[in-house]
Design a protein that fits this description.
Elements lengths: L18 H14 L4 E2 L2 E2 L1 H7 L3 E5 L3 H4 L10 E5 L6 H17 L1 H5 L15 H19 L2 H14 L7 H16 L3 H10 L5 H10 L3
Parallel strand pairs: 3-4
Antiparallel strand pairs: 1-2
The protein binds zinc ion.
The site of zinc ion (ZN) has 4 residues, from helix 4 and helix 6.
């Protein structure tokens, strides 16, 4: 990608990571905090606490605006309390905000030295999209390590033999099983499968078109 496309009008450049780099970041973190993993589930709440971050569950309509966000002080992650009723979604939200902190740590670490143009409201739509896509990728890589996800995807796909299921509905079943196994939201599972080229973009789009918003 042309790096200029990530340059905002005020000069801030967000440098996109490659999938390889994002996998490496996730692998290093998961390996370092291996005691936070039990079976396929990474205790993302415990892991961020090990790193000195504090989750701040909030009431009062935060969910109308966002599921979670990174506070100006990077050590806090405000998160909508209602999301805790659906742990796979809650955990995915935490992983996504944690991914933002990892990806732009220099910005979060010293807010007073943030370069102009790097504030959320100053970003161009293209910059915003690039940052979100990297954060979503890293979220998936943190909760669903590559080799393990690929193996479990294959296992479930091979085990479903119902001839009446079309490809999309078969994938929906597989995604539900993986969502339970890794305790990641269904959208995170689908996105991980798309990023690892286990489903194609048109199937992923079909899924996105069908989820109730
Ligand atoms: Zn985000």
């Amino acid at each position: 990608m042309n790096s200029d496309s990530n340059k905002g009008s005020k000069g801030y450049v967000y440098k996109r990571k490659t999938p390889f780099e994002l996998e490496q970041i996730a692998e290093a973190i998961v390996a370092k905090y291996a005691d936070r993993k039990s079976l396929s589930v990474i205790d993302i709440e415990g892991l961020v606490e090990d790193l000195g971050l504090t989750l701040l569950p909030r009431r009062g309509g935060l969910r109308n605006l966002a599921n979670a966000y990174t506070a100006r002080d990077w050590r806090f992650i405000p998160i909508a309390e209602e999301r805790a009723a659906y742990p796979p979604g809650y955990r995915s939200d935490i992983a996504e905000e944690f991914a933002h902190i990892l990806l732009e740590f220099e910005l979060w670490r010293k807010p007073s030295e943030r370069p102009t143009g790097s504030e959320g409201h100053e970003l161009t739509p293209e910059q915003h999209q690039a940052i979100e896509e990297d954060a979503w990728y890293l979220e998936g890589a943190l909760l669903m390590p590559k080799a393990e996800f690929e193996a479990r995807f294959k296992y479930h796909t091979d085990s479903i033999k119902d001839p009446n299921l079309d490809q999309f509905h078969k994938m929906k079943k597989v995604a539900l099983l993986l969502s339970n196994e890794f305790q990641a939201s269904d959208i995170a599972v689908w996105r991980r499968a798309k990023n690892l080229k286990l489903v194609d973009s048109s199937e992923f789009k079909l899924f996105l078109d069908r989820i109730p918003l």
